[in-house]
Structure formats: C-alpha cells, structure tokens
Amino acid sequence: MFFFTVRRIIASVLVLIASSFLVFALCAASFDPLAKFRQRQPPPTQEYLDGVREQLGLNEPFLVRYWHWLTGVLRGDFGETIGGTPVTDQLGGRLLVTGRMILLAIIIAVLLAVIVGVIGAVRQYKPSDYAFTFLAYVLIALPTFWFAAILKEFVAGGVNDLFGQQVLYTIGEETPGLSLYASGWELWSDRIGHLVLPTISLALLSFASWSRFQRSAMLDVLGSDYMRLARAKGLPYRRVVMKHGLRNALIPLTTVVALGIGTLFGGAVITEQVFVWHGMGEYLLQNGIGQNDINVVLGWLLVSAVFVVLFNLVADVLYAVLDPRIRLA
C-alpha cells in the first residue's frame, strides 16, 4: 500500500506540472497584458509600450517566463493583480469561501447517490426506483443557474415563512459586518444559513448523475457469481448487499466523483453569481476575465487543477482500499 501510494503521488506531481504548463501556455496566448496601456488617452508611444513590455518580462522567451512564474508559485507567489495587490492574499480567502461550499456539496451528493443508487438497484422496477429515476432525470435536465434561481426565489421564502423568521439567506456567504461584533454560534449559524441553498444547488445536480452510475454499478454487482454464492451459503441478504456488494459497487462511483470535481468548480462559478458569493467564481469572472488580469486567471486555473489532481489521487488510494488487487497492478 505504501509503495502504491508513493507511485500515485509521483504521477500526480507530474500531471500537475504538465497542467501548469498548459495553463500558462493558454493564458499567455489569450491575454494581452499591454491592452490596458493601449487603451489610455492619449495613446502611449511605442517607446513607452516597449519599456512596459521589458519591465513585465514579455521580451523573454516563453519557457523563461514560464519558469519564473512556476518558481514563484512554488514559493507561494502568484504575482500581482493589475491594481498591485498580491494574488496570493486574495486567493486564500476566496478559496475558503468556495471550498466549504464545494466540499459540503460533495459529501451530500455522494451520500445521497449511494443511498438512492443502492435502493434503486435492490428495488429495481419498483415504485421507489421509478420515482428516484424520474427525479434524477429532472435534475440532470435543469440548468445550474435556473435551479439555483428557483431555490433562491421559492424555497427560501417558504422556509422563512414556515419558521416565522429568516432562516435561509439568498445573498452573500454571511451577513455583512456580522463578523465584526459576533462570534461563536451566532456567526456560524449565520454562515450555515447562507450556505444551505448554494450547497443544495450544487449537491442535487451532482447527485442526480452520480446516483445513476451507482445504480448501474450495483446492478452489475448484484448479478455477479460471488453474490449468488454468498446467498447460497445462507448469508442474510442485507449483509450480502452491504458488505460484499456495496464495496465493489463504490469503485465506479469513486471514478465519477473524482472526474466530476472540475464540473463542480464550473457549477460553483455560476452558483456564486446567483447567490452573490464573494468566492473563487466572482474572483475569476470580475477580477480575472473582466479586467483582463492574467495573474488572477492563472491563479484560479492552477488552484482548480490542484483540486482536480488531488481528488483523483484520493480516488486512486480509495481504489486500493476498496479492491486490494489494484495495489498489485
């Protein structure tokens, strides 16, 4: 297990280096750091633009620029924004805001997918299976922004009216200024109230597709020879399903979840816009793409790549836990 994990870590580091190179190459080809200078009135002279180009290091070869940026990232320096603020200082806070929503959404989506997938497979073609199938297809068909808007418009108001006070919030990740005077449970309850709807929006849309994979994998396992042998030995059906069947059926779901992290990041960008969260999504659209700031976009893309590679590494380790034969592959 140790050597298997070490091999996967080395492979993940190599993938991450290749990802950083591709990210830098795409951003270097797409962004023009001199655009803001060319738009000034009166237009700057060519000599001035040449001086700025040299100051920014744009005259250097591409590989040299990539090396300078990569070594800076390894030291924790993602460069500066157009306004002169270090990107690292802004990324940390934004990542905490988005990270808690994505991680909680993953946990909820996986738990629901496993439960619904197993029930759908065990009770195949029963009313519960048809109901979960219908729900999954409806959620898969819904656009992210539309589903988030529905939750914001109808669910929040209904819950607030039911309890007689505001319980679920639809704007921001916390009440503005609350952290200046509140602490403890008052602060965390406010953040939870802001977290519920965006998390549900991400979790349910992911759960819908993941539950279909879990149901399909569970059906394949239930029809296997070793499951029939376990039943022939007299083991209780529930024990056979949970101990022998579910463990093997989780392997395909692990793959799907690991590959879906990138999709969750994309969904988080849209969800944050609907609920006005000041997280990674807003940082990419407004501070990065909106202001043509290459360092902001580079930082966002690299952080996303790190999350994707990290979750795939976790998935590789889980493969070995769920099926020990994979360690010898």
From TrEMBL:
SUPFAM superfamilies: MetI-like
Keyword Transmembrane: yes
Membrane topology: Multi-pass membrane protein
Lineage top rank: taxon: Bacteria
Annotated keywords: Cell membrane, Membrane, Transmembrane, Transmembrane helix, Transport
CDD domains with a match to the protein in the record: TM_PBP2
Organism: Klenkia marina
Keyword hit for Transport: yes
InterPro entries for this protein: BPD_transp_1_N, MetI-like, MetI-like_sf
GO CC, one annotated term: plasma membrane
Compartments reported by the entry: Cell membrane
GO BP term, example: transmembrane transport
Name of protein: Peptide/nickel transport system permease protein
One Pfam family linked to the record: BPD_transp_1
ABC transmembrane type-1 domain residues: 95-319
Annotated transmembrane regions: 101-122, 134-151, 192-210, 249-277, 297-322
Family stated for the protein in its record: Belongs to the binding-protein-dependent transport system permease family.
